[in-house]
């Protein structure tokens, strides 16, 4: 546990700095292109196209296939060197091919996501996409190298490397503002040089973070070389595992496509794609710091236990990680819901835009706790080499998400459309985790979910008065018309103040009721502070 705690603290520290600098990146980006407008949505979609693939690679193909395989290969005499040489050669070839194909299909991809866009907005987004889509290769290599480092218990670099991307982007977007001015949210305000600078900066940041990650490769103790002799790699087994993950990739892209096509109707005057992804970034701040940093070392340990057939230890890992994650995530959910308007002010241009964007953030936050549980459950299936079952419950979630998104497009007006689709995404995620937990219980037997749910219930009861304390702070500071919504920096400070008040009440109540998980949480925080 001490090793897990140290690894969690190192990842959490890197993730915290990465996400904070990521928010600064978003602030500068919004200052350059605006939060609401056709041009801002055109860039956002173009820059998210490669990110969609990265998310699937990191959570699907790479995590589902690579980490369990490396754990298994590491037991060989050469530490898995021969197999990894073949795998990296194959991965590089595939990523180059996928990147080339994506660039050829750039106009089609843009049209898929911008259903209600006019020709000028689509053309601008396509121009951005040609500059951004090379990120597919760098994202893929970043995930491939990073997950290999994680599997070899070198946890820190994968969490810290994205800071380089954020710093380069902050400087680059700041340079764009200095050269061309800010708030260029209209299509007719862009020329080829501006497009090249904005798209080039975005891609340069991703390339730099990948290059930095390679510096830490020597810590794995592996020396790789190009090897095109892929026979003996176990492609049959990998193909079987990756086939379901690839199917999950397609399902995920279909869901994202439908959602973006629906909210494209709001592009221009109301919250749309840029607000959607900015709110998602704020939502991912607690998810990344808490779930990814604590959960990643658990996943490596869980994979080792599963590989050794130690099912009792796996069940203990599941229960312990859910309770530990839940303690942090429930507080984050309560605090951010109360602070949704000042938090939204960080990535919007005015108090009115923040009030319109806040419901989108709240819509995502509904699923923060279920997604933490889903993280543990899904990766348990991966640890056993099962990618078919995750595909099944992901397809179930996708069907619900698509149906509710299409329904929202018929029912809600443009000003509420993006928030409604965010809520529909959360509802589908809740349904997914219920089905996934049931399927895992059928495989492993009792998971101790009763005890875990009881713990989550206790945390929720403590979070209610904590949220009340945060709300009181917000009201005393003027509410929606107060200083917390007067600018981006006041919005960030206000969010931190509300979160701090909620945290004090939350921790105090858990201490009064002698919550056993609090001790584990405090030790993790102490290690994070030391790091």
* Straight-line N-to-C gap: 17 Å
The helix count comes to 20
Instruction: Report the mean per-residue pLDDT as an integer.
Output: 83
> How many structural units, i.e. domains?
1
* Strand/helix succession: HHHHHHHHHHHHHHHHHHHH
Query: Into which percentage range does the β-strand content fall?
Result: under 5%
The overall strand count is 0
- Content-based structural category: mainly alpha
Portion in helices: over 70%
> Mind summarizing the main beta sheet?
none
The gross shape turns out to be globular
Radius of gyration from CA coordinates: 22 Å
Contiguous low-pLDDT stretches (5 residues minimum) are: none
Structure characterization notes:
It comes from Microbacterium album. Its main location: membrane. Pfam families: MurJ (PF03023). Keywords: Cell membrane, Cell shape, Membrane, Peptidoglycan synthesis, Transmembrane, Transmembrane helix. This protein is mainly α and 531 residues long. The chain has one domain. The chain has 20 helices and no strands. Helix 1 (2-33) runs antiparallel to helix 11, helix 2 runs parallel beside helix 6 (135-151) and helix 6 (135-151) packs parallel to helix 9 (192-215).
A few lines on this structure:
GO terms for molecular function: lipid-linked peptidoglycan transporter activity. The chain has 531 residues and is mainly α.
Topology:
Blueprint: H1 2-33, H2 38-73, H3 81-104, H4 106-113, H5 119-132, H6 135-151, H7 156-160, H8 162-180, H9 192-215, H10 235-263, H11 273-307, H12 311-338, H13 340-345, H14 351-365, H15 368-383, H16 388-411, H17 414-444, H18 449-476, H19 488-512, H20 516-530
Transmembrane segments: 20-40, 52-75, 87-110, 122-146, 158-181, 193-217, 238-258, 278-300, 325-344, 356-377, 389-412, 418-440, 461-483, 489-513
GO cellular component, one term: plasma membrane
Keywords: Cell membrane, Cell shape, Membrane, Peptidoglycan synthesis, Transmembrane, Transmembrane helix
């Amino acid at each position: 546990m001490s090793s897990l705690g140290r690894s969690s603290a190192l990842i959490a520290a890197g993730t915290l700095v990465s996400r904070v600098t990521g928010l600064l990146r978003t602030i500068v980006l919004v200052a350059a292109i605006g939060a609401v407008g056709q041009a801002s949505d055109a860039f956002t979609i173009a820059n998210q196209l490669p990110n969609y693939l990265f998310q699937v690679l990191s959570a699907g193909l790479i995590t589902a296939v690579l980490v369990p395989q490396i754990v298994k290969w590491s037991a060989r005499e050469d530490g898995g060197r021969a197999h990894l040489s073949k795998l990296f050669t194959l991965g590089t070839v595939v990523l180059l091919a996928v990147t080339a194909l994506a660039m050829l299909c750039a106009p089609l991809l843009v049209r898929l996501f911008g259903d209600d866009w006019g020709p000028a907005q689509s053309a601008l987004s396509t121009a951005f996409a040609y500059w951004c889509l090379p990120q597919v290769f760098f994202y893929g290599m970043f995930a491939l190298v990073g997950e290999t480092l994680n599997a070899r218990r070198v946890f820190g670099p994968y969490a810290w490397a994205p800071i380089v991307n954020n710093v380069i982007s902050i400087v680059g977007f700041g340079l764009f503002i200095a050269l061309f001015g800010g708030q260029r949210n209209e299509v007719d305000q862009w020329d080829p040089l501006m497009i090249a600078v904005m798209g080039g900066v975005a891609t340069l940041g991703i390339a730099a973070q990948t290059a930095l990650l390679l510096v830490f490769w020597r810590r794995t103790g592996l020396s790789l070389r190009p090897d095109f002799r892929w026979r003996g790699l176990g492609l049959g087994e990998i193909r079987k595992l990756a086939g379901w993950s690839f199917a999950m990739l397609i399902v995920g892209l279909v869901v994202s496509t439908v959602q973006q096509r629906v909210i494209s109707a709001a592009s221009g005057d109301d919250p749309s794609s840029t607000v959607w992804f900015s709110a998602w970034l704020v939502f991912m701040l607690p998810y990344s710091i808490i779930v990814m940093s604590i959960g990643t070392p658990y996943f490596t340990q869980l994979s080792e236990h599963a590989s050794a057939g130690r099912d009792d230890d796996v069940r203990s890992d599941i229960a312990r990680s859910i309770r530990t994650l839940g303690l942090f995530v429930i507080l984050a959910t309560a605090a951010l819901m109360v602070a949704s308007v000042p938090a939204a002010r960080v990535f919007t241009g005015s108090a009115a835009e923040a009030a319109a964007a806040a419901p989108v953030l709240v819509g995502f936050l509904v699923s923060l706790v279920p997604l933490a549980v889903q993280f543990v459950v899904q990766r348990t299936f991966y640890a056993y080499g099962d990618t078919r079952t995750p595909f099944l419950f992901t397809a179930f979630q996708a069907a619900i998400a698509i149906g509710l998104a299409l329904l929202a497009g018929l029912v809600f007006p443009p000003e509420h459309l993006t928030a409604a689709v965010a809520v529909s995404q959360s509802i589908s995620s809740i349904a997914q985790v219920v089905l996934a937990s049931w399927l895992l219980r059928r495989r492993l037997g009792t998971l101790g979910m009763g005890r875990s749910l009881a713990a989550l219930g206790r945390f929720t009861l403590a979070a209610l008065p904590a949220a009340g304390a945060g709300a009181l702070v917000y009201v005393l500071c003027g509410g929606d018309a107060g200083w917390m919504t007067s600018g981006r920096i006041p919005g960030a400070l206000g969010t931190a103040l509300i979160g701090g008040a909620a945290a004090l009440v939350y921790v105090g109540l858990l201490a009064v009721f002698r919550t056993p998980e609090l001790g584990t949480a405090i030790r993790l925080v102490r290690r994070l502070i030391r790091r």
